[in-house]
Design goal:
Length: about 400
C-alpha cells in the first residue's frame, strides 16, 4: 500500500506541473530569455573567414562498362526487356533487349533472296561453261577444216586442172576466215561469260552481305554484360527518370552501366550564380544520404568551365564539380547513383571580422550598431552566414551590439 501511495503522489506532482507551466508562462513568472532584457554584446575580432558551400551530388564510378544502343538502320529502338536497377549480373548475362519485329519481318525474304541469287549464280556458271565448250568445239571444227583445206591446196597446180586448183585455194581462204571467226567468237564468249558470272557473283555477295548485316543487327539487339557486377540503369533524358520497358532509345545512348566499385568519385553541381566560388584543389567532405554519420574526405579535381542545364528543358544551370575520393574503402557499400551532400570550406587569410548580427546591411553604406547605441558606417568585404570581413570604419576590439531585440 505504501508503494501505491508514493506512485500516486509522483503522478500528482507531474500533473500539476504540466498544468501550471502554461499558466506561469502567461503570467510572466517564466525566467527571462537570454538577451531579452539587454542587447547581446559583440565585438570586432581578428581571424579567418570561413565560407561554407553546400552542394548536392551523387556517387559515380571512375570507370564504368557502358552498354549503349547499337547502330542500326532504324533511328530509334524500343526497349523490350531490361534488368532491374541494382541487379547483380555475371559476365555474359543478358541485360538489355530491344524490339526486333521490324528486323525479323524481312529476314525470311532476305534469306530467300540469298538462295535465289545462289541458284542464279549456278545457272549462269553452267550456261557460261556450256557456251565456252560450244565455242571451243567450233574452234576445233574450224581448225580441222582449215587443216584439210591447207592439205588440199598444197597439191601442185601441175597435177590438176587450173579450175580445181583455184577452187581449193578459195576453200583454204574460206576455212582460214572461219577459223579466225571461231577464235573471235570464243574470246567474245569468254568475255561475256566472265562478265555475266561476275554480275551474278556480285548480286549473290550483296544479298549475302545484306543477310549477314540483318542477322548481325538482330544479334546486336540482345546485349550481354561485358563483366560481372552491379547494373546501374541510366536516366532517360526525355522522361527525367531511369530507362524502363517501353522506352524509346536512340543509337549511341547509354542505357546501362556496370561500374567498377573499387574506384568511386562524386559528381556534384555548383549553381551558376556561384560561379567562381570554388576552385580545383579545395578539400571537400562528402556525406552519403544513406549513412549520415559517414564522412568521406575528397578533393575537387575538376570544374566544368560552362554551366549546363540540370535536366532537359530546365532553366536551372550549374557547373559539374568532380570530387575524387582517394581514401580507403568506406565501411558501407556505395553504389553509383546514391545522393551525397558535399561541404566545401573556403578559408580566407586572417583579417578583421565583424558579426553580421550587428550590421544594418539595408543602409547604404552599411553601418554597425556600437555598444553605446550609436551607429558607425563600415566598409565590408566578403561575408559568410555569420560574419563579414571588415575593411574599414572600426578597429579590432570595438564593442558592438546585436540588432536582435534592440530598440532605440
Amino acid at each position: 500500500m505504501a508503494a501505491i501511495v508514493v506512485s500516486y503522489s509522483q503522478l500528482s506532482r507531474v500533473f500539476w506541473t504540466i498544468m501550471l507551466v502554461p499558466w506561469c508562462s502567461l503570467a510572466g513568472c517564466a525566467p527571462p530569455a537570454p538577451g531579452a532584457g539587454s542587447p547581446e554584446s559583440l565585438a570586432v575580432t581578428r581571424g579567418a573567414l570561413v565560407r561554407r558551400h553546400l552542394l548536392t551530388g551523387e556517387i559515380e564510378a571512375v570507370e564504368t562498362s557502358r552498354i549503349k544502343v547499337p547502330q542500326t538502320r532504324d533511328h530509334r529502338l524500343l526497349i523490350e526487356r531490361i534488368v532491374a536497377d541494382g541487379s547483380t549480373v555475371a559476365e555474359g548475362d543478358t541485360v538489355l533487349e530491344f524490339d526486333n519485329s521490324s528486323f525479323t519481318a524481312n529476314l525470311d525474304q532476305q534469306r530467300t533472296a540469298v538462295q535465289r541469287s545462289q541458284r542464279t549464280l549456278l545457272q549462269v556458271r553452267a550456261a557460261g561453261e556450256a557456251r565456252l565448250r560450244e565455242a571451243e568445239a567450233a574452234v576445233e571444227r574450224a581448225r580441222i577444216a582449215l587443216a584439210k583445206a591447207e592439205l588440199d591446196a598444197s597439191v601442185p597446180a601441175s597435177v590438176r586442172s587450173r579450175y580445181e586448183h583455184r577452187t581449193f585455194e578459195l576453200a583454204l581462204t574460206k576455212a582460214a576466215a572461219n577459223h579466225d571467226k571461231a577464235l573471235a567468237d570464243l574470246r567474245s564468249a569468254a568475255t561475256s561469260v566472265e562478265a555475266e558470272t561476275r554480275v551474278a557473283e556480285e548480286q549473290h555477295s550483296k544479298a549475302a552481305r545484306e543477310l549477314a548485316v540483318a542477322e548481325e543487327t538482330l544479334a546486336s539487339l540482345v546485349l550481354k554484360a561485358p563483366r560481372s557486377g552491379i547494373v546501374v540503369v541510366d536516366q532517360n533524358p526525355w522522361e527525367d527518370r531511369k530507362f524502363q520497358v517501353g522506352d524509346t532509345a536512340f543509337p549511341g545512348w547509354t542505357v546501362l552501366g556496370i561500374p567498377d566499385l573499387g574506384r568511386l568519385r562524386v559528381r556534384a553541381t555548383l549553381s551558376d550564380v556561384d560561379d567562381g566560388a570554388l576552385e580545383i584543389g579545395l578539400p571537400a567532405r562528402c556525406t552519403p544520404d544513406i549513412e549520415p554519420r559517414l564522412v568521406l574526405d575528397g578533393v575537387i579535381t575538376e570544374i566544368t568551365p560552362i554551366a549546363r542545364e540540370q535536366r532537359i528543358f530546365s532553366e536551372r544551370r550549374g557547373f559539374d564539380v568532380t570530387v575524387d575520393l582517394p581514401g580507403a574503402s568506406p565501411p558501407v557499400l556505395l553504389v553509383p547513383g546514391m545522393s551525397v551532400r558535399v561541404e566545401v570550406d573556403q578559408v580566407s587569410p586572417s583579417s578583421l571580422l565583424i558579426p553580421r548580427a550587428s550590421l544594418d546591411l539595408s543602409h547604404q553604406p552599411p553601418r554597425a550598431l556600437l555598444d553605446d547605441g550609436s551607429w558607425a558606417e563600415v566598409e565590408l568585404g566578403e561575408c559568410s552566414a555569420t560574419r563579414c570581413i571588415l575593411l574599414g570604419g572600426l578597429d579590432e576590439g570595438s564593442a558592438l551590439r546585436s540588432l536582435a531585440g534592440w530598440s532605440p
